[in-house]
Every structure is written in structure tokens, then in C-alpha cells.
Amino acid sequence: MHAAAAGNVGKATRRRLEQVAAAYEDQVRLLADLLAPLGVEQSAMNEPTHRGVGTRLPLEQGLTNYYVNVHRDWSWGAEENAAGLAEVAVVLGGNLRGLGRTLVQGAGTGRLAFDLHQAGDATLTVATDFNPLLLFVAREMFAGRALELYEFAIAPRSLEDHAPLRRLASPGAARAGLELVAADALHAPFADGAFDTVVTPWFIDIIGEPFARVAARVNLLLKPGGRWINTGSMAFSRAAHADRIGLEEALEMLPAAGFGEVSVRENTLPYMRSPASRHSRLENVVTWVARKSGAAAELPRARVLPEWLLQPDRPVPRTPAFEMQAISSRVHAFLLAMINGERSARDMARMLVEQRLMTAEEAEPQVILFLTRLHEESETQ
Ligand SMILES: C[S@@+](CC[C@H](N)C(=O)[O-])C[C@H]1O[C@@H](n2cnc3c(N)ncnc32)[C@H](O)[C@@H]1O
Questions:
Q1: Which residues share a beta bridge with 266?
Q2: What SS3 string covers 112-143?
Q3: What residues line ligand 1, using a CB cutoff of 6 Å?
Q4: Residue whose CA lies nearest to ligand 1 atom number 24
Q5: Contact between 217 and 138 (Cβ < 8 Å)
Q6: Residue whose CA lies nearest to ligand 1 atom number 23
Q7: Residues 52, 53, 55, CA angle at the centre, nearest 5°?
Q8: For a substitution probing ligand 1, which of 125, 131, 184 has the most ligand atoms within 8 Å of its CB?
Q9: Would you call 266 helix, strand, or coil by DSSP?
Q10: Secondary structure (3-state) at 94
Q11: Dihedral angle over CA of 204, 104, 183, 292, nearest 10
Q12: In a 3-state reduction of DSSP, which class is residue 1?
């Protein structure tokens, strides 16, 4: 906003900045209302403390991750949601009835869970996720109440499209039996064999576990003869190389995970096509239904925290990774402390060499690199 404040921007830019600034401000109010039941205001620990002691959420899973799903699910119209549901219907032979007790893992804001429950005859459909923002939106939608939230489009088509206020609404309150549970899928709070159907929509490639283990977890939740419906992308690009599997490998692993009778389908669908944005994607969506034929060869391990975290009186080991982190934090702290409004990058490099933290050759380029990053980060904030 600095340029607008200085008055040296065009009319359209000024209008955009004013609109977006007003939208951000109003969005804060709307989100605070929606999330009020969380009691964040009463939280004893402030954000810098969380940062300091490392108790923030993992970087890849923040509150606003998948925020765009809110709008795709409940405000852009039927097209994408109907297409997603149709993929599931096709692998089920056109029959969405008879799913029985159903669990939808990583349900997000819940549109697929809602549509499956409404179209079928399940007496219980449990939608889980661990993102409170998405869950609170789902709760309102399942109850048939409308909400307003702003959309922040990636490539706005017009001035008005930078931050349109969207009305989110479901086609009506859900039938009885559609429930929301806030839960980490890696510690699912359900008894073994509790479900006839487990659905994993756009989930297996973001959960951060090797596919075989995800499949074994699904198996454990299913009754004998129960069905696993998976639908979504297969973008394992952030996994370790060995775990970046494709469809052939996933299908090859299903028998060892205790699944048979697999029916699979691939179809290219429009994805995140916001009416406000010039940007959207085409995704080749993989959908399968597989029947539980037995137990998985290997039981999924729980993600166990080390003893020294569970028992605060145990010594914390100085692992090579911690050692590396300690060195880089020391250098960063030293560099930050040297910034006093007078010293140049060269002065700082000289001091690093004097402190034997770096060699003369590496010090100056490293200091410049560090200061460049610092500058860029402060600009983006
Ligand atoms: C790619 S989104 C898909 C959302 C929704 N299923 C859909 O198709 O639009 C992945 C979802 O999984 C959730 N998620 C990620 N890790 C999770 C975990 N460990 N436990 C529960 N939910 C998780 C995210 O919060 C997010 O809503």
C-alpha cells in the first residue's frame, strides 16, 4: 500500500488496493466470527512464542491451506462438484446407495461427503479433517446456514474480481446422519472395522505417508468386505523418490494392503475454475473402488514421538540435523545482532571471519546472500 499512500498510482490501481484492503479487513471480522468457538483470543501463547519454541502448525498445513475449496465447494456453482461426484458414481456402477457407514477422510469443507450422503441412503456419514476453518464452514453448510467470505482470486478477470464477497450456501440442510469429526487421519479416533466404506478424496498424495501405509490404514478402518473409494490426483512430487508412485504402482500394492475387486477409472476434469479468475487447472483424476479382501500384510505404524518428547525429563539428543540447525541459527543470530544501522556488509563479513565463523572467501558472499533474503522477506511481508 506504500505507493497508494504516496498518491503516485493510477485510478484503477488505487481502486484495487482500496477494495482489497477493505476486503482483508472485513475478512478478518468474518473469520473471527466463524472461528470464535475455538477461543483463540483466550490462547495463553502468542504467535512469536509459538515461532520461538516451534509449536506452530507444520508449514505445509496452515489454517488457510485449501481455502479456495471453500468457494469451489459452496459458491461457484454445481459444475465441478457434480463432476467429482459423477466420477465416484461411475466406479460404483451408477449406484450411490448401499455405502453403509461411511468415513470421508480429509473431507475439507465437505462437499463430496455432503453430496454422497444426500444422494445415497447411508445412515451415518462421518466427514473428518483437522483444519478448523474448513470444518467450521462445513458445519454451517451441513446445517443449511449460509455464510459470507471473500475470495482472493489467483488471476482476477476484472477489478471487482480481486476480492469478491461470496455467499456460501448448501442446497439445503443435510439429512440426519452426516457428522463432522475434527481428527488427524494419522491418529484416526475410530475403532478397527468401524466402517463399510472409506472415501479418500484428493487425500492419498498429501497425507505425507507412503501409499502402502495409507492403504493399510484404510484397510484397518473397514469391515471385512468393506469398500475403499479413492478419488483425486496422484501428485506425490514432494515425497521421497521411492514413494513418488504412479497409478500402476498403486494398483500393484493394493493386494498386499488387503484389497481386491478393484475398479478404476481416469478422467480429465476442470479443477478450481473460479468465475473470478483467468487461472484454472485440468486434472487427470483417478478414481477407484476396491474391496477389502483381508488384512494388510503390514500393520500401519502409529507416528510415534520420541521418548525425549514424551518424557520431559529425558535428555534431548544432539542429532546431526539439530547440530546443523544450531550452527546456522548461531550465524543468523550473530548477523542479525551486527545490524546496527552503521555497519556495511563488508564490516559484517570481517567480523564473521574474526569470530572464526567463516573463512575470508565465503564470508562476504554469504553475508550478502543472507541480507538479500532478509530484505526480500521483509518486502513480501
Ligand atoms: C487436497 S485437500 C482435499 C479436500 C477435499 N477432500 C476435497 O476433495 O476438496 C486435503 C485435505 O486433507 C486435510 N488433511 C491433511 N492432512 C490431514 C490429516 N493428517 N488429518 C486430517 N486431515 C488432513 C486437509 O486439511 C485438506 O482439507
A1: 286
A2: HHHHHHHHCCCCCEEEEECCHHHHHHHHHHHC
A3: 61, 66, 69, 106-108, 112, 128-131, 134, 184-186, 201-203, 206-207
A4: 106
A5: no
A6: 106
A7: 115
A8: 131
A9: strand
A10: coil
A11: -70
A12: coil
- Tens of pLDDT, residues 104-134: 999 999 999 999 999 999 999 999 999 999 9
Distances (CA, A) of 151 to 60, 193, 234, 333: 21, 40, 27, 38
Helix 132-142 to helix 111-119 angle (10° resolution) is 30
Question: Which residues are registered as beta bridge partners of 344?
Answer: none
Of all protein residues, the one whose alpha carbon is nearest to atom 11 of ligand 1 is 106
Q: Residue 107 to residues 130, 149, 181, 219, 223: CA-CA distances in angstroms?
A: 9, 19, 10, 18, 21
Query: What pTM was computed for the model?
Result: 0.82
Cell digits for 227? Answer: 469398500
**Parallel, antiparallel, or unpaired: how do β-strands 125-129 and 147-150 relate?**
unpaired
Q: How far is the CA of 106 from the centre of ligand 1 (A)?
A: 3
CA distance 98 to 330: 60
- Choose which residue among 64, 65, 66, 186 to substitute to test ligand 1 binding: the one with the highest number of ligand atoms within 8 A of its C-beta: 66
pLDDT at 135 over 70: yes
CA–CA distance, 73 with 169 (Å, rounded to integer) = 9
Taking only the tens place, the pLDDT of each residue in 19-72 is 999 999 999 999 999 999 887 666 666 666 666 655 555 556 678 889 999 999
Residue 124, classified by CB atoms within 10 Å of its CB into exposed (0-12), middle (13-18) or buried (19+), is middle
Q: What spacing in Å lies between the alpha carbon of 65 and ligand 1's midpoint?
A: 9
Residue 217, judged by CB atoms within 10 A of its CB (0-12, 13-18, 19+), counts as buried
Placement of cell 446407495 in the chain:
97
Average pLDDT, the chain: 91
* Long-range Cβ contacts of 182-186 (<8 Å, 24+ apart): 182/128, 182/129, 182/130, 182/132, 182/135, 183/128, 183/129, 183/130, 184/130, 185/105, 185/106, 185/128, 185/130, 185/217, 186/217, 186/302, 186/303
Pairing status of strand 195-201 against strand 178-182: unpaired
